[in-house]
Amino acid sequence: MKAVYSGTFDPITNGHMDIIERASRMFDEVTVLIMRNVNKKCLFTETERRDLIVRSLQTLPQVHNVSVVIGEGLTVDMARQLGAVAIVRGIRAVSDYEYELKQATANMMLNPDIETMLMIARPQYSFLSSSVVKEIALNGGTITGMVPQEIEKEVMQALQEQMKQNQK
């Protein structure tokens, strides 16, 4: 069975990596689906995000059944095109659940053959999101332990660049 784990992943966090690792043990194949979201101002391009995820996955030797794809349009349509039977989503809090319930219900209406699987974030990642990582870094905090070590320096450099541009 194949699943997709969709999101913007701007940048990928250790919470995302945990969901990927756990999903990879449950499904034969997992596709990390980087979705374009015109409502979000992203730090990295889709191609840069794909490269960051691929590099981060190399640190998980047991994750051999994960691929990374850039998609657009409806997630449920991309899942169907990729042959997935499930969309994996991580939830950290009640507010995530409410949002994901709406999305899952809409997806069920669009394609009842694709299930949505909600995975609860581990406690150490329950506060963690890409937005939190950016906010902490932009305010001089450390993001060590929040993003994969292999990409931490690159994420910090991109955020510092953004901060310089915002000051102009």
Automatic annotation (TrEMBL):
Main location: cytoplasm
Amino acids binding ATP: T8, F9, H16, G90, I91, R92, E100, Y125, S126, F127, L128, S129, S130, S131
Biological-process GO terms, alphabetical: coenzyme A biosynthetic process
Name of the protein in question: Phosphopantetheine adenylyltransferase
Single Gene Ontology MF annotation: ATP binding
Top-level enzyme category: transferase
Subunit structure: Homohexamer.
Catalysed conversion reaction: (R)-4'-phosphopantetheine + ATP + H(+) = 3'-dephospho-CoA + diphosphate
EC annotation from Swiss-Prot or TrEMBL: 2.7.7.3
Keyword terms: ATP-binding, Coenzyme A biosynthesis, Cytoplasm, Magnesium, Nucleotide-binding, Nucleotidyltransferase, Transferase
Gene3D superfamilies xrefs: HUPs
Cellular component GO terms, alphabetical: cytoplasm
Keyword ATP-binding listed: yes
Cofactor: Mg(2+)
Function: Reversibly transfers an adenylyl group from ATP to 4'-phosphopantetheine, yielding dephospho-CoA (dPCoA) and pyrophosphate.
Pfam families: CTP_transf_like
Species the sequence originates in: Grylomicrobium aquisgranensis
InterPro entries with a match to the protein in the record: Cyt_trans-like (IPR004821), PPAT (IPR001980), Rossmann-like_a/b/a_fold (IPR014729)
Subcellular locations according to the entry: Cytoplasm
Site for Transition state stabilizer, residues: H16
Positions that bind substrate: T8, K40, T75, R89
Span of domain Cytidyltransferase-like: 4-135
Gene: coaD
